[in-house]
Amino acid sequence: MTKSIQIALDGPAAAGKSTIAKIVAEKLGYVYIDTGAMYRAITLKALETGINLEDSKDAGDLLSGTRIDLQPSPNGQLVFLDGRNVTEDIRSQNVTKAVSQMASHESVRKQMVKLQQQLASGRGVVMDGRDIGTHVLPDAELKVFMSATVEERARRRYEENRKRGIDISFEELQEEIAARDKMDSERAVSPLRQADDALYIDTTSLTIAEAAAEILKLAEERLN
């Protein structure tokens, strides 16, 4: 496969984007870029340093002095924050609750978009997030917007948390996901929305394998 394309996967929290993006990238031999992990990393640092999460200048200044690295490994993508492996730390409940606030700042998003575009430049890439098709990779050859019902997304997150040993009720997760949807969709800078030329996939009744197969089929069509 000599030609390569850029694939942008967007959608709300717990729609299965990251898991599916990893599978698609691996099958195509592409680089996978988890933009959500990047926002989680800077949110973790903000919580650890105690800055005001509502202050855009403080948030932007913090990011400008921060190094975030994504590295592949046999066990999946590792996330490094200023040289420290924070792959597990960024999945904590505290980070999950704060990440939408941190990601809403223009000072943060501008820097992140630039970094993400640099990471994707000139190669086959699968990138997932909230604003990939609309802002980060507006010229991506394949754009997909994935979603599922709030109930189904809460169920998936509940299962994930249980495996990680995180104790939070299903009802609380439903409320949290609905609140994140609202914040992500209504923020002033790069809100969550489906790009005009993106294809919509409802993953509510699809398995991870089925959703990945659907996107791989679309990718093959673009490549041929």
How is this structure best described in words?
The mean pLDDT is 94. The chain is an alpha/beta fold and 224 residues long. The protein is 51% helix and 15% strand. The strands form two sheets. A five-stranded parallel beta sheet has the order 2-6-1-7-8, with helices on both faces.
**Strand arrangement in the largest pleated sheet:** 2-6-1-7-8
Count the helices. How many? 9
Low-confidence stretches: none
Number of strands: 8
Query: What would you report as the Rg, rounded to the nearest angstrom?
Result: 17 Å
Strand content: 15-25%
Terminal Cα span: 10 Å
Q: Helix-strand pattern, N to C?
A: EHEHHEEEHHEHEHHEH
Structural class from helices and strands? alpha/beta
The pLDDT mean sits at 94
Q: Note the main sheet.
A: 5 strands, parallel
Q: What would you call the shape?
A: globular
Question: Which range best describes the helical content: under 10%, 10-25%, 25-40%, 40-55%, 55-70% or over 70%?
Answer: 40-55%
